[in-house]
C-alpha cells in the first residue's frame, strides 16, 4: 500500500543552510469457542478471535456468512542471512457474482519490475493446473475448467519461493534513495519504498503472500502497483499463517498471535490468525524490543530496534492516543491487535499502512537525534557540507534546537496518519490505484484532526501549513504544475513530488473546506456515518460528499462544487497560495524554524542546489 509521505527534509535543508545569524505455532486442532460463532468451522473460529466480539455480527452483515469469506492458509519459512523465503499458500474461495468463474488471478506485488517471487505446483480443487503470466508483471492467471457456478467452492494451492533484494543504500535516511522526497522522475527509487527488501536486521516481506485481487464488472482484476502510491488492496479475507524463522529472529504479521513454538533445529514457528483483513503483511526482525498498551479492547504493540527504544515507546504513546481519538469519533477498530513496526523504508517514505499493522520508517526514529542523517546520500550534499563547515558548530547547535520540535511533530503526525489508514482504506475500502485521492486525503486530514484534538487548534493549523500547504508550494516553487488530484497513480508523470503535493497536500484540504462550509456538527456526523455505512465494504469517490450532503442538505450542491474544485480542477495557487523560497521560510514563523530570514548568498546557493535536490 502507498506510503505516508514525510516531508521534513526540504525545510531542514533550509535551516541548515540559513546560517547562525539567520537561524537565530501452527493452529491447534481444536479452536477455542468464539461467542456467537455457532457452527462456524474451527479454522474460521480461530480467525474470528482477531475481531472484537461485537464486530463479528457487523462483519457478517457487510460480508455475508463469515465462512464464505476467502480463507488463506499460509506456511512460510524465512532464511534472513540468505534473504530467502519459501513455503505454501492455499486460498479457499466461494464463487460470487452473476457469472460462472472461468479464471482466477493471483497478485504478487514484489514482481512489479522483476520476478522476485515465483509460484509453482499450482493445484485447483486438488487438480494440477498451469500458471500463466497475467496482463501485468505482478499477476499470475489460472484457467478454471470447468467453470465454477456462483456459490461453488474453489480451492487453490501454490508453492512460493522468493529472493529478497537488499535494501537500497541509505534506506534509513529520508533523503537516501531517490533524492529529496523520493525523486522527481517517474519511479525515482520509489517503486515499493522498501516494502520487499532486507537489511542485516529486518526482512520486509510485504506482498510475498499471493492474493486474489478484486475484479471489475467484466471479471478483470483491478490495476496493480504503478510505481507510485499504494501497492494493492484486496477483498476482506481470513488468514491462518505460520512463519518459521531462525533463532534470534522474530516474526510480525497482522492478526492475533497464536504462539511461538521452538523447532528441533532451533528455529521458531510463529502463528497468526486474522479475520476480515484486506492484506497480510509479514516482517521478520532481529534484536527488536517491544512495548504494549491497551485501547478499548485493542492490544497496541510497538516493535523497534533496541537502540531506538525511547522513540519506540513514544511511537506506542502516539499510536495509542490516535487510536483512542479515532475510536471516539470514527467508531471502533474491529480488530483485537494493532502493531507498529519500525522498518527501514526508502524513497522518502515515513510509513506504510496495512490492516492491523503499520510500519514507520527508521529515518523518523533517528532523525531528531541526528538531523544530518536525513541528508545521507542526497545530491548536493557536498555543497551543503562546505557551507556547514564554514558556518561552524554553533550553527548546528541552533539548528538542532529549532528542528527538534518539528521532527517530533512529524513523527507523531506520521503515526496518526498510519493509524487513520486503519479506517481509510483498511476498514472503508477504496481502490488505491485508480482512486488514491479517496483514502489518502481522508487519512491525511484525520491525522490533522488528531493533532487538533490532542494539541489544540493552533498546533493543527501549524501542521496544516507544514504538512499540507508547504509541500504543494515547494512543488510549485521547483517548477511543478498544479493539476487534477483525482487521477490514477499511473497518471502522475511528475513522480513522487507531484503525487505528494497534490494527493497528500492539496486534496486533503477539500475536507477542511467542506468542514468550514457545513460546520463541525454536520461534518463529524457525516464522517462517522461514512465509516459506519461502508465498514468492510467498498466506498466510491463521491461517497463521503454524499454523507456530508445528508448531514447538511442545504449545502449539497456547494459540497459537490467543492469536490470538483479541489480534486478535479487546478486552483491550488489561489487556494493555497504560491510561494518562493523566502516566502516558505517566513510562513514557518513561530514554528520550528523561528521565522528564518535568508541572506542573499544563502538563497542563491539554495536556488542553485534545488535541481540537484529534486533529482533533476
Brief rundown of the structure:
This protein is of the alpha+beta class and 616 residues long. The chain has helices at residues 9-22, 42-48, 53-63, 309-330, 362-366, 381-391, 393-420, 436-455, 457-477, 495-506, 509-518, 520-533, 543-551, 556-568, 572-576, 581-587, 600-613; strands at residues 3-5, 71-79, 84-94, 101-107, 117-124, 127-128, 132-133, 139-148, 153-163, 196-198, 202-205, 237-245, 249-253, 256-262, 268-277, 282-286, 288-295, 298-305, 337-343, 349-354, 357-361. The protein has 17 helices and 21 strands.
Overall mean confidence score, pLDDT: 86
Q: What is the gyration radius calculated from CA atoms?
A: 24 Å
Distance between the termini: 26 Å
Quaternary form: single chain
Number of strands: 21
Helical content (DSSP H or I, runs of 4+): 25-40%
Q: What is the C-level CATH assignment of the domain at 3-24 and 375-613?
A: Mainly Alpha
Estimate the strand proportion. 15-25%
Structure classification:
alpha+beta
**CATH topology (level 3) name of the domain at 3-24 and 375-613:** Neutral Protease, domain 2
Low-confidence stretches: 5-37, 176-190, 588-596
Give an overview in words:
- By secondary structure, this protein is α+β, with helices and mostly antiparallel strands.
- The chain has a domain at 3-24 and 375-613: Neutral Protease Domain 2 (Neutral Protease, domain 2).
- It is 36% helix and 23% strand.
- It contains 17 helices and 21 strands.
- It has helices at 9-22, 42-48, 53-63, 309-330, 362-366, 381-391, 393-420, 436-455, 457-477, 495-506, 509-518, 520-533, 543-551, 556-568, 572-576, 581-587, 600-613; strands at residues 3-5, 71-79, 84-94, 101-107, 117-124, 127-128, 132-133, 139-148, 153-163, 196-198, 202-205, 237-245, 249-253, 256-262, 268-277, 282-286, 288-295, 298-305, 337-343, 349-354, 357-361.
- A hairpin with a 2-residue loop joins strand 20 (349-354) and strand 21.
- The longest helix is centred in the middle third of the chain and has 28 residues, at 393-420.
Amino acid at each position: 500500500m502507498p506510503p505516508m509521505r514525510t516531508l521534513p527534509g526540504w525545510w531542514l535543508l533550509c535551516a541548515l543552510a540559513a546560517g547562525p545569524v539567520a537561524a537565530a505455532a501452527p493452529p491447534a486442532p481444536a479452536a477455542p469457542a468464539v461467542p456467537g460463532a455457532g457452527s462456524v468451522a474451527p479454522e474460521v473460529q480461530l480467525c474470528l478471535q482477531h475481531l472484537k466480539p461485537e464486530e463479528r455480527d457487523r462483519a457478517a452483515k457487510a460480508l455475508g456468512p463469515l465462512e464464505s469469506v476467502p480463507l488463506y492458509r499460509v506456511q512460510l519459512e524465512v532464511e534472513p542471512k540468505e534473504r530467502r523465503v519459501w513455503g505454501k499458500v492455499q486460498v479457499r474461495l466461494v464463487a460470487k457474482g452473476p457469472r460462472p468463474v472461468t479464471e482466477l488471478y493471483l497478485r504478487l506485488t514484489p514482481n512489479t519490475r522483476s520476478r522476485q517471487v515465483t509460484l509453482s505446483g499450482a493445484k485447483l480443487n486438488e487438480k494440477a493446473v498451469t500458471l500463466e503470466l497475467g496482463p501485468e508483471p505482478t499477476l499470475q492467471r489460472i484457467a478454471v475448467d470447468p467453470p465454477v457456478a456462483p456459490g461453488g467452492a474453489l480451492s487453490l494451492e501454490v508453492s512460493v519461493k522468493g529472493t529478497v533484494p537488499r535494501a537500497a543504500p541509505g534506506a534509513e535516511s529520508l533523503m537516501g534513495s531517490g533524492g529529496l522526497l523520493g525523486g522527481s522522475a517517474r519511479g525515482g527509487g520509489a517503486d515499493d519504498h522498501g516494502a520487499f527488501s532486507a537489511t542485516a536486521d529486518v526482512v520486509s516481506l510485504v506482498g510475498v503472500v499471493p492474493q486474489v485481487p478484486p475484479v471489475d464488472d467484466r471479471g478483470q482484476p483491478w490495476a496493480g502497483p504503478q510505481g507510485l502510491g499504494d501497492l494493492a488492496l484486496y477483498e476482506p479475507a481470513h488468514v491462518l499463517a505460520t512463519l518459521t524463522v531462525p533463532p534470534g529472529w522474530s516474526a510480525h504479521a497482522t492478526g492475533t498471535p497464536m504462539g511461538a513454538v521452538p523447532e528441533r533445529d532451533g528455529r521458531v514457528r510463529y502463528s497468526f490468525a486474522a479475520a476480515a483483513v484486506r492484506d497480510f503483511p509479514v516482517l521478520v526482525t532481529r534484536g527488536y524490543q517491544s512495548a504494549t498498551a491497551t485501547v478499548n479492547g485493542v492490544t497496541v504493540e510497538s516493535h523497534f530496534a533496541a537502540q531506538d527504544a525511547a522513540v519506540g515507546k513514544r511511537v506506542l504513546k502516539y499510536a495509542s492516543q490516535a487510536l483512542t481519538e479515532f475510536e471516539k469519533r470514527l467508531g471502533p477498530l474491529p480488530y483485537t491487535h494493532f502493531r507498529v513496526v519500525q522498518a527501514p523504508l526508502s524513497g522518502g517514505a515515513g510509513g506504510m499502512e496495512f490492516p492491523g499493522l503499520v510500519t514507520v520508517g527508521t529515518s523518523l526514529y533517528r532523525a531528531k537525534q541526528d538531523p544530518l542523517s536525513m541528508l545521507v546520500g542526497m545530491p548536493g550534499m557536498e555543497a551543503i557540507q562546505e557551507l556547514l563547515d564554514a558556518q561552524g558548530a554553533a550553527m548546528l547547535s541552533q539548528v538542532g534546537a529549532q528542528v527538534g520540535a518539528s521532527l517530533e511533530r512529524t513523527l507523531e503526525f506520521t503515526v496518526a496518519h498510519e493509524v487513520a489508514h486503519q479506517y481509510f482504506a483498511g476498514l472503508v475500502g477504496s481502490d488505491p490505484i485508480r482512486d488514491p485521492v479517496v483514502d489518502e486525503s481522508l487519512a491525511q486530514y484525520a491525522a490533522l484532526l488528531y493533532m487538533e484534538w490532542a494539541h489544540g487548534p493552533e498546533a493543527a493549523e501549524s501542521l496544516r501549513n507544514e504538512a499540507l500547504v508547504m509541500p504543494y508550494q515547494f512543488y510549485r516553487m521547483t517548477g511543478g504544475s498544479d493539476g487534477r488530484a483525482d487521477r490514477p497513480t499511473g497518471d502522475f508523470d511528475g513522480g513522487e513530488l507531484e503525487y505528494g503535493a497534490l494527493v497528500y497536500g492539496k486534496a486533503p484540504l477539500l475536507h477542511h473546506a467542506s468542514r468550514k462550509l457545513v460546520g463541525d456538527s454536520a461534518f463529524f456526523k457525516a464522517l462517522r456515518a461514512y465509516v459506519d455505512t461502508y465498514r468492510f465494504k467498498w466506498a466510491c469517490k463521491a461517497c463521503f460528499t454524499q454523507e456530508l450532503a445528508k448531514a447538511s442538505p442545504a449545502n449539497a450542491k456547494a459540497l459537490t462544487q467543492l469536490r470538483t474544485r479541489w480534486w478535479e480542477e487546478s486552483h491550488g495557487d489561489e487556494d493555497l497560495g504560491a510561494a518562493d523560497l523566502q516566502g516558505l521560510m517566513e510562513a514557518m514563523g513561530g514554528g520550528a524554524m523561528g521565522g528564518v530570514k535568508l541572506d542573499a548568498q544563502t538563497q542563491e546557493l539554495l536556488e542553485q542546489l534545488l535541481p540537484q535536490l529534486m533529482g533533476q
